[in-house]
Amino acid sequence: MESARWFRGPAAFFAGFAWPVTDKVTLKAEYSSDAYTQEVAAGHFEHRSPFNLALDYQIKPTVQLTAYAQHGDEIGILASLTSNPKHSPGGATRDPAPMPVLPRAKAQVAPAGWSEIPSLRSALITALTPVLRQDGIQLIRLSLTDTIAIATVENHRYQSQPQAIGHVARLLSNVLPASVDTIAVVPMVKGIAGSQVIFPRDALETHEATATGASDMRAATIVTDAAAVDHRAAAAEGVFPQFSWSFGPDVSASLFDPDNPVALSLGAKLTAEWVPARGVYVTGTLRQNIVDNYTSTPRYSDSIITHVRSDSTFYDRADGPVLQDLTANYRFRPGTNLYGRFSAGYLERMYGGLSAELLWKPVDSKFGLGFEVSAVRQRSFDGLGFAPLTVTTAGVGAPRSYDTITGHLSGYYAFDDGLHAQVDVGRYLAKDWGMSVQLNREFNNGWKVGAYATLTDISFDDFGEGSFDKGIVMEIPTSWSIGRPSRVNRSVVIRPLLRDGGAKLDLSDRLYDLVRDTHVPQLEAQWGRFWR
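and the corresponding structure tokens:
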């Protein structure tokens, strides 16, 4: 744009003011010279006056009530709820108090070879399992020698893995015989054992109550890859099969549709997970819409390339319960620094098929490299098959079939200060080739905020409005909002418009996000919670 055109063209007067009548009451007024020609022509409102008035009442710092009059045509009342991510609405997280370390008495003597006595090993597992479960931690396996104990566990409660590891270590100190002088904890996430955290028992007994206890404990701790851990060790009873489910309200949103800028749907969601064996997960989600503000006629996509995403409004309006996903996953360790995944089924709301992933990620490295390939077919609007309908301006037509192979080579890097970068290069759902770049900032309270952009070999003109795919991503930890420890997060993606270019498969629990939680960079970032 030429600088000679800056600040040129027709102009008109506008003004506004705000008068704080009291600490809680503010009066606002404005004059606008905008005639709102397009909005009036579209029938959104009648423009009878250029003056607008509002009265704000601050009920509390996070709640505001507003009465307003606009355009001489509309009056209303508005309630606004605000929140600062730095401050949890539930206050400080109320973590359950951990069990204290039990120092060994000098007179304690364990019989030589005790770890080979089946009844003693079984008694230790029996004692540990219910206490850990009460703390939201599942004991998977316990490997024992006379001097070393290795506990493989899965943390279902704490956002911070070091906090869960600290709880496990203290519980072990209460039940292990005195001859055990080395304790190792193997944190497992969704069937994947990412690291082995090893520390001398003396360090637990020495640093628990000191002012520099967390840093001293980290200095005494060694973190290694968990691929070589003996997973044939004694298994805790009743670990597999596992079954869990949840049921509750669900809100979904569709933004920036010109005909309905904020489309909201309130429904009920049932989620279930069955784990028949280590690394094998079968998950499914069923959703029933209850009420929404959708327009009566879904917006037809004008995309001139294959409609791989832009018909999403027709998926949102399906009648009856919708099976959003139903997937069988197998996660495993092919070798040191390597992680693998196979998935099959209804992989996401719009696609089903087969997917495989391989990740290389050293336990002490900030860098990771992954490869994913998927063979998928587009699902029907009602979620009951693989044949969506042809959608035109004339209405909904005959079933159509679309399948493709998509995949990416991905690079990951964890910078300092909570910055994480991801670069994906490969083939997208519309069979276009290109690259995505995403940068996220993670905060100590669990919030994540980031942005991404994707450029492919589809031209800006063929892509349509928006020119290329981009958006803002947020992840909000449930523990922040409810004030209790939880590993559940709520993810939100805000994009200006959902088009077909640069569209990726929407898979959950990709390997890097599972693995890095137990690796050195992330453990060190959260190590201050070891004694919490």
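(Above: one complete record from the training split.) The first strand starts at residue 15 and ends at 20.
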